[in-house]
Amino acid sequence: MATLGEVMGLAHPLTLARWQAALEAPGCPVCRLAQEAGRDFLLHVLREGKAHAEVYERIRESGGFCEGHTRVLREMGLDRLGDRWSVARLYGWLLDDLASDLTSRGSCAACEVAAQYERASLLALRDLLHPVGGDPDLRKRFQSGAGLCRAHFGRAAMLIEEREGVRILIDVQAGAWDALSRDLKEYLRKHDYRFSHEPKTPDEEQSWVRAVGAISGTWVGEVRDAK
Amino acid sequence: MKSDAATAPAGISRLDLLLVSYLKQALRQPGCPLCRVIRDADLYYLKVFLREGKDDGRMLLRLLASWGLCARHADGLVHLEPVEHGDGLGTGTLYDWLLDYARRRLEDLRQSLQARDDPKTPRRRRISGRHFGRIISKLAETARCPACEAQRQYTAYVTAEFARALEIAEALPEIRNMYLASEGLCLPHWRAVEQSLSSPDIRAFMGEKQRTMVASLKAALEAELACGVGEEVRLGSVGEAPAYARALATVAGATEWQRSAR
């Protein structure tokens, strides 16, 4: 029997695979999926897309990419971005066009793609958690995971209308945050001179970093290898 | 004895001379001077925040509204901890407090959901309702990240002061000369400074310098790629940055400090 997601065409197998991979990695899976979408966009646009006039026009209109995505480009290095001339040509065009027209710019195209993918990922989560047509395997993985960051939990809770889906989301989040809070409180307690002799577990050692990610969102620093 | 204001040339008494000295230092170094001053200030803000800023009462209220720092600045805080000889205690205490606050909002949500399961109320399969939405909205930020806000305000200030320093160059002639000898501004700062300038002559002077910079950067970019150098380099490395990295920084600006540059 086809799942609801398949019927609706939202939980595509590729989306499911990406969600599975994101749940294996540390931090908020939606933060990760959105940031990777922005990076993949850069990669594909520079390898293939920028020769299209409308793609270049969109990049030019926004004054190139934002600082964050420009940093990603720099960290990727030239060799991963197709032939070495493609980026040079793009930036040559941008320098020419932008220097002659200093009007204010719109938002970064890669940021826009990341925001769109962020919403698509949350919609996919809604379908995957659906008690009737969702994906039981992913639901199980999600339930044993570390939940979402605060902002993405809020957005997911707004999107999911099905009572059972909301209940799963809240239970997973409460379990994850309770465990994190326990680790963090232990970590802080063991800083007291009276308890500093007690060994800290690896989870406790990392708890303050995980708490920052849980509240402020996960900043996925590393640049994944280009496929 | 005459006051400084009386002896100083017109306009100079109101110029921030400390900032001018930062700008002079930045003009001697590669890259956009405004980006460098703003980047250094952002790093300094986080260091002060880490040492004491986050313990201030008003700041705590501010952090409650913004739910701590944004993801980029929070990541910077985590990476600054060991550099500043921290052990995560300060950041951990702050985020433990915020996490408790978030858990209380989550408990409110859970109770709201349970109330809907009350046999006296009609059970619906779908969740909707203003009360539920109101609790969820408490998990959203109502104020910007204080580090982002400080950077935004400082950027406007630095841009305006740089424009003024160029315009009153009779008092500070070296600023114009240093600007002419520098690599120039990135495109976003060129755009911002140009909007702050009131003198058409200075605007023309700046436009000429900037266009020369762009032309030479483009030539260097093509020459460098023909020679096969310039890959996988980072800004802030010793010596002159390759043209590829400079072109990227010129188009986007480089106001965000890197972990390796701290």
What would you say this structure looks like, in words?
The complex is a heterodimer of chains A (227) and B (262). Chain A is an all-alpha fold and 227 residues long. Chain A has one domain. Helix content of chain A is 67%, strand content 0%. Chain A contains eleven helices and no strands. In chain A, α3 (29-47) crosses α7 and α7 packs across α9. In chain A, 44% of the residues are buried. The model of chain A is unreliable at 1-9 and 222-227 (pLDDT under 50). Chain B is mainly α and 262 residues long. Chain B has one domain (20-261). Chain B has twelve helices and no strands. Chain B starts with a helix and ends in a 10-residue tail after the last helix. At the A-B interface, α5, α6, α9, α10 and α11 of A face α5, α6, α7, α10 and α11 of B.
List the helices and strands and how they pair.
The complex is a heterodimer of chains A (227) and B (262).
Chain A: H1 4-8, H2 13-24, H3 29-47, H4 53-61, H5 67-76, H6 84-100, H7 109-128, H8 136-143, H9 150-159, H10 163-189, H11 202-216
Helix pairs in contact in A: 2-3, 3-7, 7-9, 10-11
Chain B: H1 4-7, H2 17-27, H3 33-51, H4 57-66, H5 71-83, H6 89-116, H7 130-137, H8 146-167, H9 173-181, H10 187-196, H11 200-227, H12 243-252
Helix pairs in contact in B: 2-3, 2-9, 3-8, 6-7, 8-10, 11-12
